[in-house]
Amino acid sequence: MKIVLSDLNQNPETKIPDSLKNSLSDIFPLAEIVIVQSPNNLRKAIVDADYLLGWAAPSVFLKKAQKLKSIFLFSSQIPDSYTKMPFKIRNITGLNAEYVVSYILEVLSNHTYKNTLIIGQGAIGKLLKSKLPKDNLRVITRTPTDELETDYKDFQLEVSKADVIIPCVSLTPDTKGLFENNHFFKFLKEDVLIINTARGELFEEQDLLHFFKTNSKAFYHTDVTVPEPYPKDGALRGLSNIKITNHVAGFGSGIWEKIDEQIKNLAQEWK
Asked: Which of 121, 175, 215, 254 satisfies CB 3.0 to 4.6 Å to 141 for a cystine?
C-alpha cells in the first residue's frame, strides 16, 4: 500500500507539522509513505499511489493515478473537478468549523455593521448563525426553518439589504452562478463588507476588481483565493479595501490533533 502526503502548502500558518508526518508511520506501519513538497514530485508520486493525504493535487495529476482509492484533504474545500473522479473524497469540514467561525467573528469585531447575511447553512453556516446576534441577521438556505431564514428566491433582495455578506456555500455550478456580476455585484451596497472563507472560485477576479475599485467604502476580506497562495504582485493586493489572508481560517490551535485522529479512523478503512 502506497500513501502520498501532499505537503505543498508552505504557508507557516498552515504547514503540516512534523508531528503529524512522523505519526503516519505508526498509523500505517506496513505502508510505503511518500512525503512530497513540490508539484513535480507529486505528479510522479501519485501515479501508483493507493491513497492521498494533504493539500489538493491538480486534477490533471489525478487522472493518471489509476490505483487511487481515496483522498483525505486537509481543507474544507473540495475542487469541483474532483467530483467527477472515481475515488472517495473526504475533507475536514466539521473538524475546522469552530476555527473558521472564530476567524469570521474576529474580522467582524474590527468593523461596524448592522444587517448581516449568511449565504448557505452547512456546518460553518449553522455554527456562525448560533454565534451572531439575532437582531438584523438573515440566513439564505434551501430549507428555511425559522424567522431568520429564507430561501434562494429572495437572494437578490437579501443581498441588497445586507451590510455584511458571508458566503458559507460549497462550490458547485449553481453556487458559482449566484455570485456572477449581474446576479450579485450589481445589488450590493456601496459600503458592503464581504467575508469569504468558503471558496476563492465563487468570485471572478475581474468582478472583484471592478466593484472594489468603484466602491472605495466597501471591503473584501478573504481567506481563499485563486490561485492559492495568492501572488505577491496579484491585482487584488493593489486595492486598499481588499485584505487577503492565505487560507488560515480553519487552522486554530488543536486542528492538527483533530486531523491526526481522523487519519487514525481512516486507517481502519485503508487496509
From this structure: 121
Q: Which of 74, 35, 29, 67 is nearest to 51 (CA)?
A: 67
Q: How confident is the model at residue 173 (pLDDT cuts 50, 70, 90)?
A: confident
- Residue 123: how many other CB atoms lie within 10 Å: 17
Cβ 163 vs Cβ 192: under 8 Å: yes
Looking at residue 208, the DSSP 8-state letter turns out to be H
Is 204:181 a contact under the CB 8 Å cutoff? yes
Confidence of residue 170 (pLDDT cuts 50, 70, 90): confident
Q: Is the peptide bond before 17 cis (omega within 30 degrees of 0)?
A: no
Helix, strand or coil, per DSSP, at residue 207: helix
Cα-based distances in Å from 238 to 112, 241, 244, 259: 24, 9, 11, 35
Cell of 150: 429564507
Q: Would you say 141 and 167 are in contact if contact means Cβ atoms under 8 Å apart?
A: no
Residue 171 is predicted with a pLDDT of 83
> 165 is written with which cell numbers?
455578506
pLDDT digits (tens, 9 = 90+) for 133-160: 999 999 999 999 999 999 999 999 999 9
